[in-house]
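Quick question: what would this complex look like in 3D?
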Amino acid sequence: MRIENHPILGAREQLPTVLIEVDGQVIEAVAGEPIAAALVAAGRMVFRYTRKRHEPRGLFCAIGRCTDCMMVVDGVPNVRTCVTPVRAGMKIQTQHGLGQAKGGHDAND
Amino acid sequence: MQTTDLAVVGAGPAGLAAAIAAASAGVRVLLIDENARPGGQLFKQIHKFFGSKDHYAGTRGIDIGTRLLSDVEALGVEVMLDSVVWGIFADHTLGVIRDRRNVRVQAGSICLATGASENALAFPGWTLPGVMGAGAIQTLINVERVLPGKRVLMVGSGNVGLIVSYQLLQAGAQVVAVVEALPRVGGYGVHAGKLRRNGVPILTSTTIREARGKDRVEKATTVVLDERWRQVPGTEREYDVDVICLALGLTPLSELAWMAGCQFAYIPQLGGHVPIHDEDMQTTVPGIYVAGDLAGIEEASTAMEEGKLAGIAVAQALGHLSAAEACRRKEAVFKRLDELRSGPFGEARQKAKTRLCHPAVEEQSAPRPRPGPKHSERQG
């Protein structure tokens, strides 16, 4: 959910938006914001499932340290979505395990 | 290879202040930060700072950040963003990853202002989406203007826990409770008072026991602790929440200082292992300085003053400032630091900082820490 009105920061600026694709679903993102912010704003909290126990993980530290928010972005696995800005047309996928690199084999095997 | 008189690692309040203090005296400064934007955590701080006018009191962190950035620009400090300093080698050489390439930077002096990372707490369910660090929440609500949930349980009543709870209210969320394992509130009364006036209960001697939910947090269970930190059976309380926020203190980001061979002291009041430094903020390795949370967890206001000390000291060492002028500038900083480190909270930090400048033998160079759960242990 976007915070439209804020007692200190005022009304949210109308910033340019871009469209990104998340697991096949098109969502609107604010240009330049981290992928993670766009996903949380769209109500998506699960970013990946772990390799051994297939447990869900989402945004945790938001400063690029914990690696919980890694997803497959434009075919590249293990991208830290909290420090990677959105770009128009970006394709983002929920990551399973260590992800599968484009043209490569599944790192889970 | 790039060369500079002073390389500052970290463009938060401490690093910005160090760069400004050195550059304004004529030192050639390179400021390096791994983020796309400088300012560190300042731009998340939408509350007004304390202290006197000299400490930017009454000014919000975001406005302080804007002012420091314009100073850096006006002074011609070179700023290298999206650049990770991954190594520190002999002769003050830094290894920097920039655009996926390795760049070497040869610096006359180095000021490490790497800041801190948040402490985590492991409890059943702590890995569920919706359990987040207070810094993450602050970034989302104050910088990105995204609200991750509607009902929040805050764990920890230090200043960060209290301030972020209030900022969650400002952002339109409900804070169901703040739980604090200690028998007393950790942060300033003024912050706790704002929450109480808004009907947020602060439950001391209480901690989180469990988070539950299918694919994200749906429920949190809290439990009361006795005077020996044992859970008291029958005191469990369940809350419907979609976010659990962890505000459990910070640990200095000290990897580069360890790598440089700096001696450390273990001082719990300052966040754990902290590089030993003198009043110029110089570590036990000549030419390597520290400032801000890396030099002991405190606040943005003290971090800026420490950064200034390091910047002045480097300018003096390079002959840009006379001993008398450097002394005059440092005295002004010491005076402001004394004011910032007064009061019940400040005095404890003042004592701890004094121990850090003059550590007892048994505190020095303790073995490398094995802290509690790390973020990286959430892999599963």
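Answer marked as accepted. The interface with chain B takes residues 1-3, 6-9, 12, 30, 33-34, 37, 40-41, 45-47, 50-53, 55-68, 82-83, 85 of chain A (CB under 8 Å).
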